[in-house]
Amino acid sequence: MKAIPILPFRKRLSRPNGRARPPNRWKKEVTKPIEDAIRALPRLKFYESSSSDSLSLIILQFDADVTIPFAMQELRARISEAESRFPDGAKKPDIQQISVNDMPVANFVLSGDVSEEKLNLQADRLKRRLEELSGVRAVRLQGARPRAMQVRLDTARLASLGIPTTTVRDRIRSANRNLSWGELETETAIRPLYLAGRATTPSDLRDIQIAALEGGTIIRLGDVAEIFIGLDQEDGTTQVGIEGADFRPAIGLSVLKRPGSDTVGMIEAVSRRIAEIMAAPDWAKAVSITTLNDEREIIRNSFREVTTNLMQGAGAVFLILLVALTWREAIVAAIAMPVALVIVDQLGFTLNTLTILGMVIALGLLVDVFILVMKGMYEGRYIKGLSFDDAARATVRAYLMPAIAGQSTTILAMVPLMLIGGIDGKFIRLIPITAIACLVASLGVAFLIAVPLSRFVLSQKANPTTTPVDRATLYLASRVKGWLLRGPLHSKKRAATAVTLAFVGFAASAILADSLPSILYPKEDRRMLGITVSLPPAATLADAERVALKGGQSLRDLPYLASVTTHAAEKSPFALQAIDAYLLPLFGTDMVGISVLFKPKDARNIAAYAALPEIRERLTAALADKPGLRILLSPDLGGATSADPIQLELTGDDPALLRTLSRRIQGALAASPGVTDMRDTIGPAKTETRFTLDRDVLAYHRLSEAEVMQQVRFSLTTDKIDTFKSSGTKPDLDINLGAQHPGRAGKPGGPRRLYELQTTPVVAEDGTVLSLPLVARITTVTSPRLYLHSNGRRTNTVKARLAEGATASGVAEQLSPLIAELQSTLPAGYDIRWAGEIEAADETFSETRVSLILAGLFVTATLILLFGSFLQPFIIMAMVPIALTGTFAGFYLLAIPMSFPAMIGIIALNGIVVNDGIVMVEVINERWREGKSIQEAAALGASDRLRPILTTSLTTIAGLLPLAFSAPAW
């Protein structure tokens, strides 16, 4: 089972290895070659990239119907071509397939009364074991610190001995090696020769000889470095508070599934693996694992809710049939309905909420053919007194072709829905497919199962008795016939007046409906909320931890929250709801993430999206003493994607101009009611310290630029230089080389004081020690933290979210004058375009309108063939806009926005209207062939078909009512 179908997307990630490069250089050396290679990929819809410090990330979106293996093969081939242009040290690109909503399907936290190192060890072990499972794409850890063999150099002592840090690196690499020395062949055996040079204990590393001084003194690694197995530098922390309890240190663990895999099955495998690991003797019993979020229950609840709607609708349909027909026909229809649904279930459809929704929509439609069949059988047996076999043959002759025609036109009305492209088309396609399958199955069930089944309830001869419903419908039919003959059908003038008034009413209702706001999907009451708090760019980890604690504590006592987890210096995994979120920084001391999990819907009295204003108010009040903070709420609102509804993509070459445009637009958005969380993707600029090497000083001391770069890097930061062999099957540890800094008080990390930077030594070939300011000029500059591109063009996207009551279409209409003004003043090569919900809605609704036109053409062509006339299909198709009068007026009176699900309902309604019109016109033709006048034939057609039409309408309404009062999206 799946909650929604997973769509194919590709994410391409390139990470550096070795020397760091600034964003602008990395963009030219890595990102640009990749973009050049992939831009001509077949079926590529668009690509976006970000370039930051030694990191390129490129997201590609192919057409929704692309063949996945072919696209991946082409992508890998193009990336291989680009790799030849990469600089030295760039890692091989990592290509991953991800879904449009790359949200974790399960979230856990590890906590316990153990040391931090022990907790990290257990988290790392759990991550490795879970990633072995076939359905798991990745496991992300929040607040974890990897273990490594730490080599912390005493750079002052090395400088006093005249030993460069690069010499230490080279000696470790050369000494820490295993090597085959061939083999020894004796008269009796052959023995392989093998040098076991890799270090297996910290003592082995300490004994590595670094240099020999004059006089024969040997300098070993242990003489100039502190060596131990320990945790890396603390870059962030995670704390969790469950059910209002105090926050405690923890490590978060988020499980992501592979696209296309079974969500429930994968989570069950994860749960079994966790239970197996915790039951192992070597698991630290003091470490507990708490489940924060498990999509199994959400999926099952969603599936249970829609299935309940289906069963409730079927029950309501049966009750209506029981009242409208006799108990005999109702029983046969009640048996035939589940048979049709079971047949659809056996056709290989994946069981998810969308396929169940398709069945719910088709429920009222498939009952219509059962009513026709049972009506024919009833008339044959009890009105005409035929034998069962003769009644069955008469029923098939009379109703088979009208039933096929009716179902065919309904199917044709839904077929264009499957032609809608893009994310939303792929997302929604299962609904019409399932509905069509139900309608096709209902034809076979009606004539091949319902007719033979009726032998058991209609085989006995019986005198027909009129029921109150019969008398009521006969009375109503006679009144309708009389009214039609006295009113609209009395003369051509009255008929023309009635038709004119009907179309005027349609036009008026369409005008009213056009004034309604339009949204892509109504909000859904989901449980996850990601919060991102942006701090000033110069914030420290201590600042982030304080903000995280205060923000988390302000939400802890809210009665509708199940848990609150804070992430200092890291975004919440709940905030990564759209694939373009990965293009922006995910880590940094200038950000705090808060993961909020709401209680189940039956355990709270407020919808999650309705609680957002209170949550924002609490955070704002709690963090009021922290200037420069920005709070972004990222709720899971359902739909095909959870991207920001308001997006304006600015493209051009000059980042300064893009920033200016962004500020103008954000100012206008701030003045729009209901618009929140305005920001852009470039974000605030960062202040960095740059060093420019003095090449004359380097030449005098015979120092190369590369040598100085590496010496200073090892003095200021930590790099992986090799691996340390672990015992048994445990994974090898990295050997991280860095320097000791007094400001860190023995903890790993770079310098924290200015004098530590100024006294960084550079050792020349002759042993001369130079301080960093002697070999480099130091300046401070402001620059972008990353460079973003869309389809190869530099971009800055303005984004915003909407509060309750605001719509993207309304905001777009309000901003259109400003956008037009800015567009008119932009230089050549610059552009402003709407993205997000506006772009998706324009694409989806325009394709839906095209689908409606195509459906009308398909149905009209079928009707022309069926009736052999151009006029009668025109009469039937004219019923469609008149039928929409009530729909549009109802939407306006109830203030229901026009949405994508509403368009699906309208298309389904068209099928019902055409279906009823076919049978009505067929009856009119029969009465006319019997010699009735055209006025009387038309009146009899309406009155004779009144009861079946009312029954079909009531069963359709009854089948959909439970769905209408359940999920707001439908």
Features:
single chain; 970 residues; alpha+beta; nine-stranded antiparallel sheet; 30 helices; 21% strand; elongated; disordered N terminus
* Structure classification: alpha+beta
Count of runs of 4 or more consecutive helical residues: 30
What is the residue-mean pLDDT, rounded to a whole number? 82
Biggest sheet details: 9 strands, antiparallel
Distance, first to last CA: 20 Å
Q: What helical percentage do the residues reach?
A: 40-55%
**Cα gyration radius (Å):** 36 Å
Give the CA-based shape.
Answer: elongated
What does this protein structure show overall?
The protein has 970 residues and is α+β, with helices and mostly antiparallel strands. The protein is 49% helix and 21% strand. It has 30 helices and 30 strands. Strands 1, 2, 3, 4, 20, 21, 28, 29 and 30 form a 9-stranded antiparallel sheet that branches. Strands 5, 6, 13, 14, 15, 16, 17, 18 and 19 form a 9-stranded antiparallel sheet that branches. Mean pLDDT is 82; it is low at 1-19.
Compact overview of the structure:
With 970 residues, the protein is of the alpha+beta class.
Question: What order do the helices and strands come in, and which of them pair?
Answer:
Elements: E1 9-14, H1 23-38, E2 44-52, E3 55-62, H2 68-83, E4 94-98, E5 106-112, H3 116-130, E6 136-142, E7 147-153, H4 155-161, H5 165-175, E8 178-185, E9 190-196, H6 202-206, E10 209-212, E11 218-220, H7 221-224, E12 225-231, E13 237-242, E14 248-257, H8 263-279, E15 287-294, H9 295-324, H10 327-345, H11 353-383, H12 388-414, H13 422-428, H14 430-453, H15 455-458, H16 468-486, H17 492-514, E16 528-534, H18 541-555, E17 561-570, E18 587-598, H19 612-622, E19 630-635, E20 646-651, H20 655-670, E21 675-680, E22 686-693, H21 695-700, H22 705-716, E23 719-724, E24 733-739, H23 754-758, E25 761-763, E26 769-771, H24 772-775, E27 776-783, E28 787-790, E29 793-802, H25 808-825, E30 831-835, H26 836-867, H27 871-893, H28 900-929, H29 934-944, H30 946-964
Parallel strand pairs: 7-24
Antiparallel strand pairs: 1-3, 1-4, 2-3, 2-28, 5-14, 5-15, 6-14, 7-12, 8-9, 10-11, 13-14, 13-17, 16-18, 16-19, 17-18, 20-29, 20-30, 21-29, 22-27, 23-24, 25-26, 28-29
Helix pairs in contact: 1-2, 9-10, 9-11, 9-30, 10-11, 10-14, 11-12, 11-14, 11-30, 12-14, 12-26, 12-28, 16-29, 17-27, 18-19, 20-25, 26-27, 26-28, 27-28, 28-29
